[in-house]
Amino acid sequence: MTNAARTSAISELLVEALRAGNAIRIRVNGTSMLPAIWPGDVLTVVPATDAAPAPGDVALTAGHGRLLVHRVIERSERGGAVALVTRGDALAGADPVAQAGEILGTVVARNGQPVGAAHAARTRLRDNFAGLVARSAPLLALTLKLRAITRRLVPAAQ
């Protein structure tokens, strides 16, 4: 089995688990959500409901053949169907609109620590500011990405 086929099969299993009403844990590998989410972080995702995810939440969506974990920046409802606009905190542009069938879940924990509404209210301003800085300063964004990689490769001092 090729690596791409394995990744696709795992993604399908994760999607089916969420659609069956189960929470999942996934390890992320991208840098688009720096500084809120780092490569290697383990996220707990609960299935999406009609009430969630809301703007400010971090959502798991499926689209264009891949899974995305990005922050919700806009939510709309038309005829009872929910649609989301998401964007990585470290990215300048928004993702394509995620329709109801592509909205899989809401991130509720990062590395075992809750990231619910109370936590989001405390950290949203800091993360939004850091994301803005990373988007407007390419050298800083590269530095953050390199730090993320080395942070995962070098063990912490004892």
Textual characterization of the structure:
With 158 residues, the chain is of the alpha+beta class. It has one domain (3-153): Ribbon (Umud Fragment, subunit A), CATH 2.10.109.10. Helix content is 34%, strand content 29%. It has three helices and seven strands, in the order αβββββββαα. Strands 1, 2, 3, 4, 5, 6 and 7 form a seven-stranded antiparallel beta sheet that branches. Strand 6 (103-110) and strand 7 (113-114) form a beta hairpin. The longest helix has 20 residues, at 117-136. It is globular and about 40 Å long. The mean pLDDT is 83.
Key traits:
single chain; 158 residues; alpha+beta; Umud Fragment, subunit A; seven-stranded antiparallel beta sheet; 3 helices; 29% strand; globular
Write the layout of secondary structure elements.
Blueprint lengths: L2 H17 L4 E4 L14 E6 L10 E6 L2 E13 L2 E7 L15 E8 L2 E2 L2 H20 L1 H16 L5
Antiparallel strand pairs: 1-2, 2-6, 3-4, 3-6, 4-5, 6-7
Helix pairs in contact: 2-3
